[in-house]
Structure formats: structure tokens, C-alpha cells
Target: dTDP-4-dehydrorhamnose 3,5-epimerase
Amino acid sequence: MKVTETKLAGCFIIAPSKFEDSRGYFFESFNEAKFQEAIGANTHFVQDNQSFSRRGVLRGLHAQAGEHAQAKLVRVLQGEVLDVAVDVRPGSETFGQHVAIQLSDRNMLQLYIPRGFLHGFVVLSKTAEFFYKCDNYYHKASEAGIRFDDPALRIDWLLPSADIIISEKDNELPLFSEVYTDKA
Ligand SMILES: Cc1cn([C@H]2C[C@H](O)[C@@H](COP(=O)(O)OP(=O)(O)O[C@H]3O[C@@H](C)C(=O)[C@@H](O)[C@H]3O)O2)c(=O)[nH]c1=O
Model:
């Protein structure tokens, strides 16, 4: 397993070690001991989520607030997505910055997103199955989010805006400046 820290401290790209033979392949998609050692934190996951979406579907940018914040370990089971994590940790040197990485069933990359980030993804392939682990349970009342297309975030979602499909809920999300008033 190769683990690379992104430009956002605490946010890691994980490339599992894959074993191929005449039957196909094998890899450990998650190993808690190796994972915790690699990221230097004892994140403990309690909920797994899976979603299916067609090309152009964009889910995000989402987080849960306060004590219900979630760290996530995300990957793609089928297809390809552009996955985006935005640093909104108070006082972070990279506050407001994001990482964007293509995750697919071919590159098998995973992204570890600590608590204190907004997260979203858009489907680049015809369809995609997306899978992620969370270190805190879903808590509807704590759901928060920011519009994916807020120009202040300068995220290139790689698809023409006419191709992007979002939920009614995501369409009503506020702008970054409406939520995060102080940068400190
Ligand atoms: C996220 C979530 C949703 N739900 C329900 C609520 C709703 O009826 C239905 C669909 O929910 P949503 O529209 O919020 O699903 P979705 O837009 O896929 O939300 C997800 O987006 C990605 C980007 C994330 O990072 C996740 O944390 C989560 O916010 O599933 C749960 O029961 N448990 C959960 O953990």
C-alpha cells in the first residue's frame, strides 16, 4: 500500500497493493492497523455507504457539523469519478483550498478525507458505484454543505455545466462566503 499526503495536511491518497495472477486480482481494500499507521491517526470507521449514479451526477459539497463531523475513506467500485475535498478546518493554512482526484475501478485509488472537510464527487463514466467508510454516524440534523459551483472555490469539475445533475437539496445549498465568514 502506498500512501501519499496531498497538499492538504491530513488528507491522503492511498494506492492499495494489488496481487494479480491467472485468476484475476486480490487486494486488501481496508486494513485498520496498516491504515492507522499510514495516516498517523486512529480514525475508527463505524458506517459504510454505497451509492450508484449515472454520468454527470454530482453529489456535494457535503459535511456534517460539530460533533457529528465525519472523516471518510472513499473509493470507486465501478466507473470513474472526480472526487473533491475542500479544507474548511478553522485556522488551517490551506483553508478554502481543495484537492481533486480521479478515482476509478482501474486505478483503485482511495482518498482519506479527515474531519473538517467538505466532500463531493461527480461521475465521469457512464455510471459509477461509489463506496466510502465514515468515522461517525449519519445525523440528518447536522447535514451541511456548500454549492459545488461556488466560484470562490475554483473547482474544475471536468464536465460542462450543462451535463451536471444535482439533487434539489444540493441546489439549495449556500455559498461558501455565507457560511464561512472568517478565514481564521
Ligand atoms: C448520507 C446518508 C443519507 N441517507 C439517506 C438520506 C436520504 O434519504 C438519502 C440520500 O441522501 P443524500 O441525498 O444526502 O445522499 P448523497 O447526496 O449521496 O450524500 C452523500 O454525499 C457524499 C458526497 C458524501 O460525502 C456523504 O457524506 C453524503 O453527504 O439517503 C442515509 O440514510 N444515511 C446517510 O449516511
Summary: The longest strand covers residues 47-54. Residues 138 and 157 are 26 Å apart (CA to CA).
